[in-house]
């Protein structure tokens, strides 16, 4: 069951290279085979995770046939091989995201809307009809924005 598998190496400029490897091959072996002399500059990203352990096998990372690994060449390297993850092919992983205001905006707005809806349901007498219509409008607008940004 140790046949060859094909892995798609995807780059920022939307070019792809097909790597034919064995599941027993390591991350470091993949780098040295397809990026000789540049192993220390290359970063691999799979399912939102930076593959840092060069000794891990592809099988142990659950990399199977036709998976996509995003390739990024670190500072000082040519921009032609720079890669960022494609949101359509990677799964979100909070551990791989840097902490910034942009990443916290959507959850913060969701919590605020949830609190406002809680108060609206439990303290209905404090909300006028225009306030209720406005709350519905803001909720619908935010839903469209959130699903437009994160939906497929």
UniProtKB/TrEMBL annotation:
The keyword Transmembrane helix applies. One of its GO terms (biological process) is ERAD pathway. It is a multi-pass membrane protein. SMART domains: UBQ. InterPro entries: TMUB1/2, Ubiquitin-like_dom, Ubiquitin-like_domsf. Pfam families: ubiquitin. The keyword Mitochondrion does not apply. Its main location: membrane. PROSITE patterns: UBIQUITIN_2 (PS50053). The chain crosses the membrane at residues 104-121, 127-150. This is TMUB2 protein. It is found in: Membrane. Gene3D superfamilies: Phosphatidylinositol 3-kinase Catalytic Subunit, Chain A, domain 1. Keywords: Membrane, Transmembrane, Transmembrane helix. It comes from Glareola pratincola. GO terms for cellular component: membrane. Residues 5-70 form the Ubiquitin-like domain.
